[in-house]
Amino acid sequence: MIEPDADGRIPLGAEMPEGARFVGGVAALAPRWLRPDDAPSEADLSMCVACGLCLPHCPTYRLTGEESASPRGRIAAIRAVAEGRAEVDDRFAEFMDLCLSCRACEDVCPSHVPFGRMMEHARVQIEPLRPARERLVRRLGFDVALPRRRLLSAVAFLQPLARPFLGKRLRGLVPRTSAGELVRPLPRVTEPRGEARGTVALLSGCVQNRWFRPVNRATIRVLARGGWRVVVPRKQTCCGALHAHYGRLDAARKLARKNLRAFQGADWIVVNAAGCSAHMKEYGDLLGVEEAVAVPSNVRDLMEFLYEQGLDAPAAGLPDAGEDGSVRVAYHDACHALRAQHIREQPRALLRQIPGLEIVEIEEGDRCCGAAGVYNVVQPEMADELMRQKAEAIAATGARLVASANPGCTLQIAAGLHALGAQAEILHPVEILDRAFGSTEA
Question: Residues 341-350, buried b or exposed e (16+ Cβ, 10 A)?
Fold first, then answer.
């Protein structure tokens, strides 16, 4: 029997080893996935032609200059395991873990390689390799805390007690919230002002609704002002984005199914966190062909929805504008808004309706800030460098307001600006609109 060559391939016409198969016109050994049922698909892998156009757009490749830290390098590693030429080991895990899943590569790929989906399936494979303690921590965070509203609220309540025991770096990343916000739930139903245009179901979120509840309140007020009846389904749960991004696809599927039941009947499902809206739009890919028929097509990111449906312009500018009535706002594009959903001009157009508001662009503003879910916790060195670059670029604009439509980005940018000693308030775009409307508390 002929052995594979130096590249692990077997020439055509040779006697096939047991378990070998044809891949790309040559014979390859059987895949070496640890969890074959959730492995990256051959169809996805075959889409990459290794052209390298993605490399200059990949944040980790730009910082390291290493092929292994590029989308092409990671796909080569995945393909090697799929063709039986490599194993899922610690080195493979290192390649996958260093990825931000920012999907900048997808945005420029001429072959439309679904790299984000591929990375989620690759990370499923490395979960069994993690130390027992790390697996336990991830299970407690992802599977126990995030989906349980009361438990997550308890964590938020107790957070001030834990802050003194956190390192300086983590203290800067952990958001603050008030007990007053936590004990005052969102209204279950908010009726529209004026003639009703339909019913919107709001994903209140897990992190968003514990540490950024003012964003949800502003969302409800602006939607109601625009003529929408807003409901907040009580049986909803975490969208599952973090679970999917970090190799817990089974848990992500359970959360998706629960949310599909909770949001039935609404004209629209509106999501005000970019990472969550991008993930919910991809429930069909997550659940597979048989269940995809149940996935609604009416999921919208909040800023996308307001732009599509139309929103009357505020009559006046922001109450805290300068003497000349102007306010400069630096707009930060969250990766999963810009890359995964192609949302860029919509929020800018809405904000430009505010009298006196000037939007200033951030240098290399399409570059990831380094938050990337929990990336800034598990990959601190890379995340901190990206955070520094982003914070310096924002500070250079001179803007005293920063618009950020994703909670992870908001925390990362706040920590970066604080480290620089820069003074700027960070708000969700809908909070800026809400201020301009001068609304009272709902």
Answer: bebbebbbeb
Crossing angle for the helix pair 71-82 and 115-126, to the nearest 10 degrees: 50
Considering the domain 327-437 in this protein, what is its CATH number? 3.40.50
- Which tokens in the block code for residue 66? 């290493």
DSSP labels, 210-235: HH-HHHHHHHHHHHHHTTEEEE--TT
Q: Please give the model's pTM, rounded to 2 decimal places.
A: 0.89
- What is the chain's pLDDT, residue by residue, as a tens digit (442 residues)? 344 455 545 454 455 455 555 555 555 678 999 999 999 999 999 999 999 999 999 999 999 999 999 999 999 999 999 999 999 999 999 999 999 999 999 999 999 999 999 999 999 999 999 999 988 888 888 888 788 877 777 776 667 666 666 666 666 666 777 777 777 899 999 999 988 999 999 999 998 998 899 999 999 999 999 999 999 999 999 999 999 999 999 999 999 999 999 999 899 999 999 999 999 999 999 998 788 778 889 999 999 999 999 999 999 999 877 777 789 999 999 999 999 999 999 999 999 999 999 999 999 999 999 999 999 989 999 999 999 999 999 999 999 999 999 999 999 999 999 999 999 999 999 999 999 998 434 4
- Could you give the angle at which helices 115-126 and 90-97 cross, rounded to 10 degrees? 140
* DSSP-assigned letters across all residues of 43-69: HHHHT-----TTGGG-HHHHHH--GGG
Number of other residues whose CB lies within 10 A of the CB of residue 108: 14
- CB burial of 276-309 (b: ≥16 within 10 Å; e: otherwise) equals bbbbbbbbbbbbeeeeeeebeeebbbbbbbbbeb
Evaluated on CA atoms 170, 173, 179, 183, the torsion sign reads: negative
Which residues are within 8 A (CB) of 342 and not within 5 positions of it... i.e. 6 or more apart? none
Task: Indicate the SS3 state at residue 295.
Answer: coil
- Are 155 and 144 a contacting pair, CB within 8 Å? no
Q: Tokens in use for 311?
A: 């929103």
For 31-128, the fitting CATH number among 3.40.190.10, 3.10.25.10, 3.90.10.10, 1.10.1060.10 is 1.10.1060.10
Are 87 and 114 contacting, i.e. CB atoms less than 8 angstroms apart? Answer: no
Domain 184-309 in this protein, CATH class: alpha beta
How many helices and strands (H and E) does the chain possess? Answer: 24, 11
Helix or strand (DSSP H, E) at 388: helix 380-397
Cβ distance 27 to 14 under 8 Å? yes
